Amino acid sequence: MKKYDFDQVIDRRGTGSLKWDEAPEGVIPLWVADMDFPTAPSVREAISERAAHGIFGYSILPDAWADAYIGWWRDRHHIDYAREELIFCTGVVPAISSAVRKLTTPAENILIQTPVYNIFYNSILNNGRRVLESPLIYEDGEYAIDWEDLERKLADPQTSLMILCNPHNPIGKIWDKETLARIGELAARHGVTVLSDEIHCDLCDPGREYVPFFAASETCRQIGVTCIAPTKCFNLAGIQTAAVAVKDRFLRHKMWRALNTDEVAEPNAFAVSAAIAAFGQGGEWLDELRGYLAENKAFVRSYLKDRCPTLTVVPSEATYLLWLDCSALTGDSRKLAGYLTEKHGVFLSDGAQYGEAGRSFLRLNTACPRKTLEMGLARLAEGLLAYPGDESLLPR
Predict the structure, then answer these.
(1) Phi/psi of residue 104, each to 5°?
(2) What are the boundaries of each domain within the chain?
(3) Quick check: do 18-40+283-390 and 84-268 share a fold?
(4) What are the start-end ranges of the E strands in the chain?
(5) Residue 295: enclosing H or E segment and its boundaries?
(6) What whole-number distance in Å separates Cα of residue 163 and Cα of residue 99?
(7) Looking at the domain that runs over 84-268, which CATH code has it been given?
(8) Residue 344 phi, psi (nearest 5)
(9) Strand 312-313 to strand 159-165: parallel, antiparallel, or no bridges (unpaired)?
């Protein structure tokens, strides 16, 4: 018997919600990676208790904060982080931007495997560095690493940092231990630091488990900076709470200095309580959520297979995001996404923002009550079937 109600529809409009208030009135938003579920009861209770105290001065990090991370990663992901290896940060994206500024110099290359989370581009380009894409190989609806291309670009003397997405957003792929170890060996051989964004790690499908970059090999531990947080899996992005894990003490000192210099290393009044409650008491809620999300993803696959057979839903092992191959309809996902929003009232992310390799894809967020998802899918299918196509598919 299920304990938690993920079918409840909660009106989020007018609450300052990026997901809903950025969408036009009447449009169903299935875009940004944000869930339409209240967070775990234990987290809400911890925040309420902290709010009831009424004083919100400067906050410190108690031992319980590190204990929560250590226990969660030990019990869930079979890796032992040491207390001194963990640094508080207000978010994964601030940590990535700080790492870019501290671990690289202007005009150096930062390697990413595309299609990939679009904000990686912002962190690189806004800080005067160069994006170096190593596109993933896409064949028969599946993605794989182009090892020859990856090594060639890691070997470029101008490449100093690689940002790894583990599990990978938007394709939902879990990188296995052998793959991560091989990435680590190649990066170490060419003097490249690897920053692993693992924010989606606790949203693997039931029965599936991610491998932390740190756990792949000793080499990975020595050259790696890992970003972890409860914010994605417990829907706490607005609380701004995360951690950066670094084993090598020299690299850790650089990251500690970077985060403090950028003033993103101090918690707000709710950040610590929320993280401790999530990792300390939220496991049961999360496991039930993962089951619900897996059912949502299966529902999407079945629905679109029946109604839009020209569409390919890329297999996904993790995240609540689905990557939709629309190449039979378009080579211009921006145009298609705009058409779906304007004409059919459903808002998906256009794949082009995740790199050139995503220009014929859409990203769909399944993290909402089934009723909302079904209404959104009905509009999506209607729009795809009515889409007139575009000039991007014409022979050149």
Answers:
(1) -135, 170
(2) 18-40+283-390, 84-268
(3) no
(4) 28-29, 86-89, 109-112, 130-133, 137-139, 142-144, 159-165, 193-197, 224-228, 242-246, 312-313, 321-325, 346-347, 349-350, 361-365
(5) helix 283-307
(6) 10
(7) 3.40.640.10
(8) -125, 0
(9) unpaired
Which residue type sits at 339? Y
Give the CATH number of domain 18-40+283-390.
3.90.1150.10
CA–CA distances in Å: residue 61 to residues 85, 95, 228, 272, 365: 14, 17, 16, 7, 33
| Contact present, 333 and 362 (Cβ < 8 Å) | yes
For Cα atoms 329, 382, 370, give the angle at the middle one, nearest 5 degrees.
115
Tens-binned pLDDT, residue by residue, of the chain (396 aa): 789 999 999 999 999 999 999 999 999 999 999 999 999 999 999 999 999 999 999 999 999 999 999 999 999 999 999 999 999 999 999 999 999 999 999 999 999 999 999 999 999 999 999 999 999 999 999 999 999 999 999 999 999 999 999 999 999 999 999 999 999 999 999 999 999 999 999 999 999 999 999 999 999 999 999 999 999 999 999 999 999 999 999 999 999 999 999 999 999 999 999 999 999 999 999 999 999 999 999 999 999 999 999 999 999 999 999 999 999 999 999 999 999 999 999 999 999 999 999 999 999 999 999 999 999 999 999 999 999 876 555 443
H runs (alpha helix) in 92-156: 92-103, 119-125, 147-154
Cα separation, 283 vs 345, whole angstroms: 36
Say if residues 159 and 108 touch (Cβ distance below 8 Å): yes
Sheet holding 242-246, edge to edge: 86-89, 242-246, 224-228, 193-197, 159-165, 109-112, 130-133
ω before 206 within 30° of 0 (cis)? no
Q: Which of 222, 225, 267 shows the shortest CA–CA distance to 50?
A: 267
Q: Name the pairing type of β-strands 109-112 and 130-133.
A: parallel
